[in-house]
Records
---
Amino acid sequence: MTRDSIIRFDRVTKAYGPNERVLNEVSFDMERGKFYTLLGPSGCGKTTILRIIAGFIEPTSGDVFFNGERINHVPANKRQVNTVFQDYALFPHLNVYENIAFGLRIKKMRKAEIDAKVKEALKFVNLPGYESRELSEMSGGQKQRVAIARAIVNEPQVILLDEPLSALDLKLRTEMQYELRELQQRLGITFIFVTHDQEEALAMSDEIIVLNEGIIQQSGTPTDIYDEPINRFVADFIGESNIIDGVMFQDFEVEFAGRRFECVDKGLRPNEPVEVIIRPEDLAVTAAESGKIQAKVDSQLFRGVHYEICCYDADGNEWLVHSTKKAVVGDTVGLDFEPEAIHVMRLNETQEEFNRRLESYSAGGGQNAGK
Amino acid sequence: MQANNRTFYWIPYVLWIALFVVAPLLLIVYYSFFDLNGNFTFANYQNFFTPVYLTMALSSFWYAFLITFFCLIIAYPAAYFITHSKYKQLLLLLIILPSWVNLLLKAYAFLGIFSTYGAANSLLETVGIGARQILFTDFSFVFVSVYIFIPFMILPIFNALDKLNPALIYASRDLGASFWATFLKVIFPLTSSGVKAGVQAVFIPALSLFMMTRLIAGNRVITLGTAIEQHFLVTQDWGMGATIAVFLILIMIVMMIVTGTRKKGVL
Ligand SMILES: Nc1ncnc2c1ncn2[C@@H]1O[C@H](COP(=O)(O)OP(=O)(O)OP(=O)(O)O)[C@@H](O)[C@H]1O
Ligand SMILES: [Mg+2]
């Protein structure tokens, strides 16, 4: 293996009861110094994965490797990993300074050095001068930032962040997203970041792992996952999508909404039933006769950057369009899109099959899958 | 109207406090200023500072300290174990159950167990150590007292441990702390309120134990509690008995202040 692997899961399963698999044969390989995001709905097992990496729980079966060494039974305090907890888990009997200095004191670092590091960490999280504050005098967002400072001050090899920005307002949140990303790149530490906010995941990550019900649905770069979702779940979870049942008529030709369209997918069985995805921002509103699909505008919402227009075609399919231009409710409009905007998903395709199919596009005839 | 109603609800409580707490306290202070013949005097207070009573006070303190100490070192690990057990409620019930049994009954039971031909000595015989005098020793006194007081120590510590957010322990481990470092830096400081409550619940009553000293220690241990009892029931010197009681109350108040909730983060 040429990759500089830092954390690897080999078919890790975690079960709390005989029939309660919280994680089901989860395998992944994380490279040193990258920013990973675990993305998935509430209860899908994100925190469980972090707990296994941190060493708070052991997998029921499967192996966990750290720097190539199996660490299933290594206790948490012997792992070069620090966690930013979902509920902060700050020590209520210690003030801000002592909370951040906790790990350094355990390492028996010299006082002057601790002082300097705590100061620097506080500056990073935008809380300079808060050293002597008690936690009871801090807001939720400030506590969250103390929790981040407490983890980064130890300069571990891996930092696990369990929804660390969820309590912040939008502005501070965006600011912290930039700063966390910048810090990660500056320190070269591997970040494993948990969120159920897909925009946050897309903005920050080198690689995203999408989970549902304890099973990895898809992993890849943000663009891969956004542009080529493997199934309905991923497509739905990452951004809004129009998902329509269709049939793959033949290579480069797919049938849905009662018509055949040119597309860039191939290698499927002729007449194979598929699901077709078109992102709302890939649809353009045109005059009724010049569009590929005709639909009636049902409702319209102003979203700030764009209008979110909801239309129905003659077959009753719902089409969500993001457009900077306003439409008139009740009008019939045309919807236009490029062949590259059509993403074809096979039913029940595994990630390996999916990757092989994608690779065959770029290998064969330069017909790249719409990027 | 509203305000009147509220005062009305207070009446039973205020009456109770006045009749059974404030009045007796005042009576105790009042009696402490009279001698055997009913004459006003400060002699009782002077008497208290004679070696007889001072040694008695010291020995009361010493035994109360021993009892509290042993209760604590048994109760803390026990409470820790219970909070981590699957059968929390059952174990807790088993701990509380003995405290529902009357104190005298338990004392008499130990009289049987510790007697020359009792269960404890038969056990010592079988393991080859041989029978010995257990009853009427310091050991039996402290042992039985600890047995009686231990639920009052376990409960507050259990409550404190149970309330402790387990994520804090994870956080401490995550930051590199061993189990002991976690205990010293996180678990104990955050449960010290429970320990203080437990110490109050054991130390203060242990200061004035008197039935135990009579039955289990055979009057070999004489505490302030015993002295009060003797003065009121045997020598009829109510004044001196009341004086000792006044000092006991003062000691209790001091204890409450010392172990009372201090500012967070001091410990
Ligand atoms: N100690 C436990 N015993 C039994 N089930 C548990 C335990 N801990 C977690 N679970 C279950 O495991 C599943 C995954 O939990 P996990 O905390 O990993 O979810 P999550 O993806 O972090 O969700 P969220 O986004 O809400 O934090 C949940 O269904 C949860 O009920
Ligand atoms: Mg979680």
Note: The longest helix of chain A spans residues 170-187.
---
Amino acid sequence: MPTKLHPALIGFTVLVFIFLVGPLIIVVGAAVSDTSYLTFPPHGLSLRWFENIFAIDAFRRTILTSLQVAVLATFVALLIGIPASYALNRYRIQLPGWLSTLFVLPVLVPELVLGFSLLKNVAYQFNAPIFLSLVVGHTILILPYVIRVISASLASFDFSVEEAAISLGSPPLKTFFTILLPNVRSGVIAAFILAFITSINDVSISIFLTGPGLSTLPIQLLAHMEQFFDPTVASVSVLLMVLTVAVMAIVERTLGLTFLAK
Amino acid sequence: MTKPLSIRNITAHYGRTLVLEDLSLEVAEGELVSLLGASGCGKTTTLRLVAGFLQPTSGAITLGGRDLTRLPAHQRDIGLVFQNYALFPHLSVADNVGFGLKQRNVTGDARTKRVNAMLERVGLDHLADRLPAALSGGQKQRVALARALVIEPPLLMFDEPLSNLDAKLRVDMRVEIRQLQRANGTTSVYVTHDQEEAFSISDRVAIMHAGRIMQLDTPENLYQRPANAFVARFVGFENLIPMKVVARDGALVTAEAAGGVRLSFGLEQFGEIPDDFVLACRADGLTVTDNLAVEGIPATLGLRTYLGRAYQYQCDTAAGALVANGPLSRVLQPGSAAKLVPVPEQCTILKPE
Ligand SMILES: Nc1ncnc2c1ncn2[C@@H]1O[C@H](COP(=O)(O)OP(=O)(O)O)[C@@H](O)[C@H]1O
Ligand SMILES: [Mg+2]
């Protein structure tokens, strides 16, 4: 006999669901509204606010910048994060315990503080170009996630497999690419996606580092909102959402979302 | 093809901790030598040094005259079989076995042929396309064995290859390993903590303790003539009785144990007898009798257990607590007085520590 759910539990679950999904429905609704102001439920149905995103030059440029920064920062973070996670896991016994904590410490620092300190110490100090500052800032932001996710998949890797390959004549570096990487592939993909999403949605670090002439999509969205209260805000949000959901769907397809719970 | 291995005066550390101390070991061409010892005594460390995954603090390792000591691991050409199999999870059985050949630039048909022949030899030709995750423990270890053998290495090393298998399979697999090793005549070092396993398949066994080899000898000699008290205890000599020679009369030596117990020993049976020595005997080598007139160690019998072939008694004597066996034909009661008579053929004499 299947256990009967308590009505209160069902009610609570529905409430949580509405709480989670409600805002999304409102944003999507507002985005397709055929009005010149933000409203929900939508009056009429129109895709013109989506067209408007691409009609506004600043949005076109910032979408491109956001994508470039996200891709670059993700690649740099993987380039640093994969060897770092490897070293942290491979030599776990020999290394002091606090070292792996050190690598994920930036997660604990409020992003605003991180952004401000980057502005003061990197952007001003070295007079670094905005784009470079953004890539560096995002790399620092996402590196802990990359290391965490890849370490999780390395934790179940048996390093004697690597030694087996070396003993059979495969040099260590070649072994890293032919034996180790294929076995943590899903972890690398998950890290890639998580890093990409974190970067493309970031506001708190970017807001310090963007400047005249160069901005990212979420920052441009904020700027736009200060002047206009039209449904473009909602349609850009939907665009970001769709991008995020698409990327998450790929994660779900490759290894499930369980890694996020770890 | 196969080559002798020589480990000379190796000392090894993990950080500051000394793990191996001045260890030397010669393995002749085609010989199988086991390293036998409790967990943590340095067996794996020894293999890792030879394989090149660890650098010795001092000492040298040579294989067939070639100095391996500073050679990178991937150039050493040694077949390794690991306890946890260490198969490549993302490669099929055939690709696992072919991996070493690929590194040696054996390609195409030549590789396929050698892989298939090897898989056939270990009885896995029907599983060539499987992934390791879909194999049983015994099958995995056969793949690991095939992978190490197919490159025809001059030296094979096994690190507790059977300890993850169940008892019955362990016995079958060790015979199989020995047959393959014999057929190829490959010099081998085999690590185990299982005495029966080591004794059954080895030409010689090195009994290790705390980073040193306590004795290296044939299984027969180790079992019957241990060289020291540690090895004697390790191979099951329950009774080690310190004795002092009190009289020498031609071929007859009289010695005294604690509590004034006197026993006589024939030189023709024991060879040389030093003034201070330890008499070592298993329970089987110490016979319980209620005939108190014979020469032996006076004892009060304690707990009696049934062994099938004999009764075993825990005995209280002036020379300490001893374990001795008595015949099935005569059941003796706990608390009764008896004599424990050493059986010369089953006793051995050790130098004191
Ligand atoms: N990576 C390591 N770091 C520090 N100590 C180690 C390491 N590996 C092994 N040891 C220590 O070295 C000693 C010998 O280990 P090992 O050779 O693995 O023993 P065995 O294989 O005989 O069980 C043990 O005391 C063990 O704790
Ligand atoms: Mg070991």
Note: The mean pLDDT of chain A is 85.
